Amino acid sequence: MKISTLIIFITLFLLSVSCRKEPPTNSPSPTSCDSPPGNRNFTWRTDTIAWWPSEVGGVWAFSDNDAWVVGNLHGPTVPGQTSYIALHWNGTEWKDTIQFTDVFAIPNDVTGDNRYMVAAGYLLYVGEKPAIAEFDNSTKKWSGYQFQTPGVLYSVWTDKNGFFIAVGDSGMVYTKDGYSSQWVYSKAPTNFTFNHVNGVSKTEIYASGYSSLASGSDYEQYWKYDGIKWSKLFDNQDTVENVISLPGDYSVLTDINAYRCSATDSLQLYLGGFDSFLLQSKGQSLNFAATNLSSLGLPFHSFGSVALVINIFSPNDVWFCSARYESYQWNGSTFQQIIIPGIPPPESGFGAISRIVKTSNGKAFFSNEVSPQVYVVAQGTP
Questions:
Q1: I need a surface site. Which of 98, 284, 315, 329 has the fewest CB within 10 A?
Q2: For residue 220, how many other CB atoms are within 10 A of its CB?
Q3: Which CATH number is 136's domain given?
Q4: How many domains are there within the chain?
Q5: Strands 277-282 vs 357-358: parallel, antiparallel or unpaired
Q6: pLDDT tens-digit profile of 214-258?
Q7: Chain centroid to CA 369: how far?
Q8: Starting at the edge strand that comes first in sequence, how are the strands of the sheet with 327-330 ordered?
């Protein structure tokens, strides 16, 4: 009995020694913001998914073969199709549809993570009242919410961990903190319409807003939200307390998007417009170094175009898209125009466009209006 006990003890001791000699399994924390150049080479396909009188929003993809396009969809995809909240890509075709009876929203924007998708828009046929549709990919169930606040929700963002924020008319804000939580209304201290929202975390969110006056003048604002209060960064109507100083033409400003490197706690803040800008800072400092991206080769202003959508996948994979069928990708050193078969030639016309989303495999999806009231979804396979 004593010999067997001794053998067990020696065995356990040798095992513990061998375990201590193994290298640690945890990867070291990143020490820089370096990332490989983003991919520019895709095989593209486009599918017509709607025509007049449709209103198509964005696309969210859970995987290469599991994606949804949202909107008020009429057209060729399903025989007899009239109006649906979403249309599903199953890896082969856009086919399965979801139709609401209690909430019939026209979503303007959509976002999500591996589990959950949220589309934000407004109620159909009952005036402009904000509405939100949610899809739980784990249960395959849709739910809808309608609100009594006047107006439309135009943009929605998530931290991919259960927090969602939707923004719209007159500084309207709705937040949801947790997949099972309720939506909570608040109002930013502005009457400008928020048309884009993006963020780094639920305590660092950026929004762009605009105001069109009866006189014909248009003005833009940029805001930052820390989870408690909103701080105005830029206003080209009331410039007295501007935090941001822009070197160039800021007569038209649109999207805002941000990337923060955790290794160096450095912020890259992109602003879209006739001239688009990169603002850089450290920590939570608002002392930005600004670069006009025209100086780095982004040609929108020279074409009379506006960067409507900014998509950030890494510091070296940033896409700028316009309504004139122009897409440019920044790979860390140069801008290159991306020509997409099935989309009209650049500068040949105008069409509504959604933000680009990518799956974990790098496959890209986005919706585009290719001629008046004819909508496609483009898919780019690396």
A1: 284
A2: 22
A3: 2.130.10.10
A4: 1
A5: unpaired
A6: 677 889 999 999 999 999 999 988 888 899 988 777 778 899 999
A7: 18
A8: 309-314, 317-321, 327-330, 335-337
Which residues 6+ apart lie within 8 Å of 108 measured at CB? 57, 58, 120, 121, 122, 152, 153, 154, 155
118 vs 131: CA distance, rounded Å: 11
Per residue in 353-364, pLDDT (tens digit) is 999 999 999 999
Residue numbers of the domain that contains 240: 50-315
Strand partners, 368: 353, 376
Nearest Cα to 312, choosing from 363, 270, 254, 351?
270
Count how many Cα atoms sit within 13 Å of the Cα of residue 222 in the half-sphere of its side chain: 27
Is 39 contained in some domain? no
Query: And the tokens for 338?
Result: 């991306």
Q: Please choose, from the candidates 218, 209, 215, 256, the residue with its C-alpha nearest in 3D space to the C-alpha of residue 237.
A: 218
The C-alpha atoms of residue 140 and residue 378 are separated, in whole angstroms, by 24
Band the pLDDT of 84: cuts 50, 70, 90. Answer: confident
pLDDT interval class at 100 (50, 70, 90): low
Q: Scan for tokens 């884009």, then name that residue.
A: 196
Q: Is 101 left (phi over 0), alpha (psi -120 to 50) or beta?
A: alpha
